[in-house]
Amino acid sequence: MHEEPEVAVLRYGHRPGRDDRMTTHVGLTARALGADRVILPDNAGQSKETVEDITGRFGGPFGVELTDALNAVIRNWEGVVVHLTMYGERVQDVEEDVREVHEETPILIVVGGEKVPFEVYEHADYNVGVTNQPHSEVAGLAVFLDRLFDGRELDREWENADRKVIPKATGKKVVEPGADGEASDADATEDA
Ligand SMILES: C[S@@+](CC[C@H](N)C(=O)[O-])C[C@H]1O[C@@H](n2cnc3c(N)ncnc32)[C@H](O)[C@@H]1O
Questions:
Q1: How far is the CA of 84 from the centre of ligand 1 (A)?
Q2: Nearest Cα to Cα of residue 12 among 92, 119, 93, 90
Q3: Distance (Å) from CA 55 to ligand 1 centroid
Q4: Can you tell me the ipTM of this complex?
Q5: What are the structural domains, with CATH classification, of the chain?
Q6: 141 C-alpha vs ligand 1 centroid, how far in Å?
Q7: Where is the stretch described as Disordered (predicted)?
Q8: The pTM is what?
Q9: Nearest C-alpha to atom 1 of ligand 1 is from which residue?
Q10: For the segment 125-147, what is each residue's pLDDT rounded down to a tens digit?
């Protein structure tokens, strides 16, 4: 999926303390569900560290950046800007359009925290609602990415991981990936 044009996620706003987990989860969700990088406000350094730590252990590639110029990131984006908001067009009505545009063009997905200024709505090429009900930036991002990639992100392979979870019906199995990327039984640890 990484030969496709870039998918970046911009976390618009961060209240230290109150938003720490949410901002971290925006980053982790962006990573797990197929985005190439997340851009966080510069007061979210702790979230950056956590997402980088997870990428170091569970694999990448995935980039994490801080910015002190959220509006400039949106204004200067060379591609399509999708702002996720409960007030937007229904995701099921625009997803096909967005997928087509993405075949040729990088996408910046903007998710808010506290109130998002109207300027963002105006600059966005698409304001998209994952339902028109209030919920969470993490939930909205997850559903949108899954629609964007049409589920392909679920089969993604991870590079340079120092551990890999082997899916099990019951219990936990974590292994060290072998040189060929395959797990070896000798490496297996239960309950890691
Ligand atoms: C807790 S909401 C607060 C939004 C705030 N009331 C405003 O007007 O911008 C935080 C973020 O979650 C996302 N969000 C919440 N509900 C959504 C929905 N139904 N569809 C898409 N995104 C949603 C948006 O990105 C929003 O900025």
A1: 7
A2: 119
A3: 26
A4: 0.95
A5: 7-161 (3.40.1280.10), 162-192 (no CATH)
A6: 10
A7: 169-192
A8: 0.93
A9: 136
A10: 999 999 999 999 999 999 999 99
